[in-house]
């Protein structure tokens, strides 16, 4: 709604029900017929229940939780009001702080998704109903934009997933001697942009060591030529960042919290030579930072070049399951209770285990590229029509 808010001077003062509305950019406004106001409450508090036949608990209450709602959903009692500014419980910083833009000298390898939302979200282009579909006549609009579908997905929330962070804390506690390595290794996927950019800025933009965890051999000590990425770094925000370390970490934290974001998958470099993927545990290789790759031929380059300094290009590999296999095949060492690699009896090498084998399962299924019913990961999980998996 923001593009239309101040499209006329009468929007500043006056009756909201008589504001002119611009449905599409460049079209004349539609002037509503003035109505005689019969209620004194503010407009947004006078919204009635929708007559759609759905049984609801009660009319929504605007200022405080509804006791009947809490009772219906088994809340034990009305929670006490809390001063959020005095709350010391751990919280993930709010999403507006996930903000990394292209610098004047050109884009870094990774930018946050809010740099893409201006064109790749429903209504962001000024056309209020583009990239949406109506579920039924008179029903709500479903957001089918790339950003809309990604934002609430496990990939969009990978850097904020409470289940992941709970598991991470468990691993750090159980394997305390390796807890620094474990954090860097797990955030190599879940906080990939922050972890990778932090490594590249220390070892050089083209360092292949940042494209490889280099941490799976737990028989060696952690690297000493770079600082490992950590869970605590994700707390950093520019607000009240006092020390140089806090100010530095705010940049990488914003990238990490944005999850498996746009400039991750659209920067992946796929080796087309082998029939199956050959990068695992998040060790995918990266293309140039000033280019992104997508599934559409002859893309319009000017908007992205002018706003981000990035040129979009066509690359069919973006539709390959190999891209997904880079992170959805996780190979990890098996550790004993002391945090040391475990070697089974009569074996000479420590045991490695496939912690996540989603891509491997696809390789051995009928859906593989040369299988009886070939379908890529994207065919099912990112269909261009119908309902997503």
Quickly describe the structure:
The protein has about 400 residues and is an alpha+beta fold.
Task: Give a verbal description of the structure.
The structure is a single chain. Among the domains are: 1-71, no CATH class; 162-322, no CATH class. It is α+β, with helices and mostly antiparallel strands and 389 residues long. The protein is built from 13 helices and 8 strands. The strands form 4 sheets. Strands 1-2 form a two-stranded antiparallel ribbon. Strands 3-4 form a two-stranded antiparallel ribbon.
Q: Strand order of the main beta sheet, please?
A: 1-2
Number of strands: 8
Poorly predicted tracts of residues: 1-9, 21-32
Question: How does the overall form come out from the CA principal axes?
Answer: globular
Name the average pLDDT: 80
Largest sheet properties = 2 strands, antiparallel
User: What's the alpha carbon Rg, rounded to whole Å?
Assistant: 25 Å
Beta-sheet strand percentage? Answer: 5-15%
Helix content: 25-40%
Key features of this structure:
389 residues, globular, 13 helices, two-stranded antiparallel ribbon, two-stranded antiparallel sheet, alpha+beta, disordered N terminus
Layout of secondary structure:
Blueprint: H1 2-5, H2 67-72, H3 117-120, E1 132-134, E2 141-143, H4 146-151, H5 162-174, H6 179-190, H7 192-203, H8 244-257, H9 262-265, E3 268-269, E4 285-286, E5 291-294, H10 302-308, E6 311-314, H11 321-325, E7 329-333, E8 352-357, H12 358-363, H13 377-381
Parallel strand pairs: 5-6
Antiparallel strand pairs: 1-2, 3-4, 7-8
Helix pairs in contact: 5-6, 6-7, 7-8
């Amino acid at each position: 709604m923001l593009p239309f808010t101040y499209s006329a001077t009468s929007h500043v003062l006056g009756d909201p029900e008589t504001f002119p509305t611009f449905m599409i950019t460049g079209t004349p406004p539609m002037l509503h017929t003035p109505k005689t106001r019969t209620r004194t409450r503010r407009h947004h508090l006078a919204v009635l229940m929708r007559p759609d036949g759905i049984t609801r608990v009660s009319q929504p209450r605007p200022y405080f939780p509804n006791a009947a709602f809490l009772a219906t959903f088994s809340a034990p009692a009305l929670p006490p009001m809390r001063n959020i500014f005095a709350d010391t419980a751990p919280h993930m910083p709010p999403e507006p702080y996930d903000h990394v833009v292209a610098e004047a000298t050109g884009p870094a390898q990774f930018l946050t998704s809010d740099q893409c939302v201006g064109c790749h979200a429903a209504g962001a282009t000024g056309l209020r109903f583009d990239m949406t579909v109506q579920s039924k006549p008179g029903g709500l609009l479903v957001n089918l934009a790339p950003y809309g579908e990604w934002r609430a997905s496990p990939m969009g929330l990978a850097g904020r997933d409470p289940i992941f962070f709970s598991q991470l804390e468990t691993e750090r506690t159980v394997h305390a001697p390796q807890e620094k390595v474990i954090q860097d290794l797990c955030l190599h996927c879940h906080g990939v942009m922050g972890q990778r950019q932090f490594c590249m800025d220390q070892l050089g933009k083209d360092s292949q060591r940042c494209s490889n965890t280099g941490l799976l051999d737990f028989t060696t000590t952690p690297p000493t030529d770079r600082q490992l990425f950590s869970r605590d770094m994700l707390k950093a925000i520019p607000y009240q960042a006092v020390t140089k370390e806090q100010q530095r970490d705010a940049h990488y934290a914003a990238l990490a919290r944005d999850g498996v974001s746009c400039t991750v998958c659209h920067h992946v470099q796929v080796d087309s030579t082998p029939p199956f993927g050959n990068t695992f545990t998040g060790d995918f290789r990266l293309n140039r930072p000033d280019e992104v790759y997508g599934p559409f031929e002859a893309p319009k380059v000017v908007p992205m070049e002018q706003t981000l300094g990035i040129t979009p290009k066509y690359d069919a590999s973006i539709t390959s399951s190999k891209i997904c296999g880079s992170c959805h095949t996780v190979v990890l060492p098996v550790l004993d209770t002391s945090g040391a690699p475990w070697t089974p009896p009569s074996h000479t090498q420590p045991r490695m285990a496939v912690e996540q084998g989603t891509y491997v399962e696809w390789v051995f299924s009928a859906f593989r590229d040369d299988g009886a019913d070939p379908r890529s990961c994207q065919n099912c999980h990112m269909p261009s029509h119908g309902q997503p998996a």
